[in-house]
């Protein structure tokens, strides 16, 4: 598809306004599991277009944070504001409609469907029931979106392969493709390179870097070299609390972070 020149009808003040609204803001977000405080008063603000890493030792609350953002878990207290709109406690399908997608720490693909079917189902899930486009156009549109998502993760040549026949690295990238097919504004990646070889890790990071040109990304990643090279800012969680936040350089030199990381 050739790129159409876009005409922006918003006033400069509107454009400045939209750019200054954070893509994501959490306010004093807390999650308790019985007596365990998995998240305690986590306040994070992320600018539009930012790539933010969430790091921290095992059990720090990273996946719990993602679960709250994506509606898998309802926070015990606190607020989540996405793109200027409160989404606290909304169900996951509503949050997906609003533009947050995620990949899971443990792969979540349909093994008996093809790579193409996996992304097509995701593309379809984002469509509104009241869409007025004819069935034929809607069908072509969804297939087109699925193709774009597969291309973005380098799997177009595997489109008709069963997902279960893909390598582990390809399956993990397919999962990113599934998330992209919902056309998110914010993509949350929970350890996308877990279990990958070094070569696969490097490829996936190049892929994430390409994707990051067009949307905001939150990423949980244990490989520090990967995190440092990829992110604009880093938030460090420790026992459910924000221990530190800053640029990769600041975090690398932060004595509290060094202590936690060198100990684990
Ligand atoms: N559904 C649940 N019920 C009870 N406890 C939970 C639940 N989910 C997570 N926890 C606990 O909450 C804490 C935070 O877990 P979480 O999975 O968010 O950590 P994490 O930072 O993602 O760790 P990892 O690096 O191992 O993935 C842990 O102590 C975990 O055991
Ligand atoms: Mg986790």
Question: What can you tell me about this protein's structure?
Answer:
With about 260 residues, the chain is α/β, with parallel strands linked by helices. It folds into 2 domains: about 15-100 and about 185-200 and about 215-264, Rossmann fold (3-Layer(aba) Sandwich), CATH 3.40.50; about 110-185, no CATH class. It is built from 10 helices and 10 strands. It has helices at about 10-20, 60-70, 90-100, 115-125, 135-150, 170-180, 200-210, 225-230, 250, 255-264; strands at about 25-35, 35-45, 50-55, 75-80, 85, 100-105, 185-190, 215-220, 235-240, 240-245. The chain has a 6-stranded mixed beta sheet with strand order 6-7-8-3-9-10, with helices on both faces. Strands 2-1-4-5 form a 4-stranded antiparallel beta sheet, covered by helices on one side. A hairpin with a 2-residue loop joins β1 and β2 (about 35-45). α4 (about 115-125) packs across α5, α4 (about 115-125) runs parallel beside α6 (about 170-180) and α5 packs across α6. It is globular and about 55 Å long. Mean pLDDT is about 90; it is low at about 1-10. The site of adenosine-5'-triphosphate has 12 residues, from β2 and α2. The site of magnesium ion has 3 residues, from α2.
């Amino acid at each position: 598809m050739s790129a159409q020149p876009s005409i922006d009808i918003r006033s400069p003040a509107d454009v400045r306004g939209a750019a200054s609204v954070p893509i994501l803001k959490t306010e004093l977000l807390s999650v308790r599991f019985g007596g365990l405080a998995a998240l305690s008063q986590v306040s994070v603000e992320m600018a539009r277009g930012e790539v933010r890493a969430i790091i921290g030792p095992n059990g720090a609350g990273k996946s719990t944070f993602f679960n709250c953002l994506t509606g898998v878990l309802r926070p015990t207290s606190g607020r989540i504001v996405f793109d200027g709109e409160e989404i606290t406690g909304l169900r996951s399908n509503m949050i997906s409609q609003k533009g947050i997608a995620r990949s899971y720490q443990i792969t979540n693909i349909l093994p008996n469907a093809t790579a193409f079917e996996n992304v097509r189902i995701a593309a379809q899930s984002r469509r509104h029931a009241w869409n007025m486009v004819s069935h034929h156009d809607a069908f072509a549109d969804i297939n087109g979106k699925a193709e774009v998502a597969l291309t973005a993760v380098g799997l177009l040549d595997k489109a008709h392969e069963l997902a279960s026949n893909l390598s582990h690295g390809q399956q993990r990238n397919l999962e990113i493709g599934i998330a992209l097919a919902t056309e998110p504004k914010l993509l949350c990646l929970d350890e996308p390179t877990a279990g990958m070889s070094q070569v696969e890790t490097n490829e996936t990071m190049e892929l994430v870097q390409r994707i990051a040109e067009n949307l905001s990304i939150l990423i949980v990643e244990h490989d520090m070299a990967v995190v440092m090279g990829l992110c604009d800012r880093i938030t460090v969680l420790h026992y459910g609390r924000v221990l530190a936040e800053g640029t990769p350089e600041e975090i690398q030199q932060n004595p509290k972070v060094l202590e936690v990381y060198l100990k684990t």
